[in-house]
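TASK: fixed-backbone design
INPUT:
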């Protein structure tokens, strides 16, 4: 009889875990800062971060400088500009 209780507890805990994950969208959420308030970071931002070795402050400074020097462009344009400049400077 005790084995059945243990099995029932495991099943209930598994169902609670599945329901909890389902309620959160199936995956853990992460907190994003500043311009990263969107649900996920763009591929360009990930590439910029790799070139900057994860230095978020440097990324934000470069994006802010691009916005200041080239007003009125889209967010994607600024990301492409910063990435192109970083890759150019690394050659």
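OUTPUT:
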């Amino acid at each position: 009889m005790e084995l059945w209780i243990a099995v029932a507890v495991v099943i209930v805990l598994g169902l609670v875990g599945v329901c909890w994950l389902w309620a959160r969208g199936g995956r853990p959420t992460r907190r994003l800062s500043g311009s990263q308030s969107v649900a996920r970071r763009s591929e360009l931002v990930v590439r910029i971060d790799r070139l900057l070795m994860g230095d978020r402050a440097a990324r934000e400074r470069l994006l802010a400088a691009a916005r200041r020097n080239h007003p009125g462009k889209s967010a994607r344009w600024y990301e492409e500009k910063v990435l192109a400049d970083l890759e150019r400077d690394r050659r």
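COMMENT: The two ends are 71 Å apart (CA to CA).
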